[in-house]
Amino acid sequence: MSRLLDPKASEQEESHWLSVSDLMAGLMMVFLFIAIALMRDAFIERDKIKEVAIAYQENQVAIYDALMGEFEDDLQRWDAYIDKESLTFTFRSPDVLFAQGEIELSPRYQALLIEFFPRYMQVLNRFSDSINEVRIEGHTSSVWNRSSTDEEAYFHNMALSQGRTRSVLAFVHNMDEVEQYRPWIKRHFAAVGLSSSRLVLDDSGVEDRNRSRRVTFRVITNADIQMRKILELGE
Question: What is the domain-level CATH number for residue 60?
Fold first, then answer.
C-alpha cells in the first residue's frame, strides 16, 4: 500500500517501463534497417541476374543471326536447319553422313564438313568469349536389329552415336583450314553420343526413324555460369 502511495517508487517504475519501451523501439529500428539492407541486396542481385538474362537472350539472337547470315543459302542443299532457341545446327540426312551401323564418315559427309566447318568456326570466333561449350551430338533411331531388345538396342546405339561424334570431332579438328582454332576447339568442343534418347516424332507422335538419325552441333553459352557466379558472390 505504501509503495503505491510512494511517488518515487511510481516514478522509478514508470522510468523502467519507458526504458524497456525505448529499447524495444530501438531493436525494431535495427531489425527494420537489417530488413531494408537485405531487401536492397536481394534487389541488386535480382537486377544483376536480369541483366545477365537479357544479355544472354541478346547474345543467343546475335549468334543465331550470324549463323543464319552465313549458312541460310546452304541449309536446303545440306538438308540442315538451325534451331534458334538451342543454337543447334542439325544435319538430317543419315545416308549422307554414315553408312548404316558404321562410325567412319562417308566421303560426301567429309566434303560437306570441309565446306561447313571452317565457316562455322569463323562465326563462333566472333562470340568465343561468351561460349562455354560446343557439343557435337550423335543421335540414332530406337532400333538396332530384329533380335535386339529395347535395352540392347539403346546401348548398341549409344556406342554407335559416341563413335560417330568422335569421328566427326577428329576430322574437323585435323582440318588445315582451322589450325588457328585448334587450341580453342580442344578446350570447348565435346563429342557426345545420345543414342535414341531424343527421338524425332512425326505429327502423330510416332518415331521418325530417318530423322532421328542425325548429327548436331550445339552452342552452349556461358550465361548460366555468370548467373552462378552472381549467386555465389551473394552468399
Answer: 3.30.1330.60
Specify whether the CB–CB gap between 225 and 132 falls below 8 A: yes
Q: Locate cell 577428329: which residue? A: 170
168 phi and psi angles, rounded to 5 deg: -65, -45
User: Do 235 and 41 form a contact (C-beta atoms < 8 A)?
Assistant: no
CB-CB contact of 124 with 187 (8 Å): no
pLDDT in tens, 183-224: 999 999 999 999 888 888 888 888 888 888 889 999 998 876
Whole-prediction pTM: 0.72
Q: Is residue 16 part of a domain?
A: no
What pLDDT band is residue 229 in, cutting at 50, 70 and 90? Answer: low
Q: Do 98 and 106 form a contact (C-beta atoms < 8 A)?
A: yes
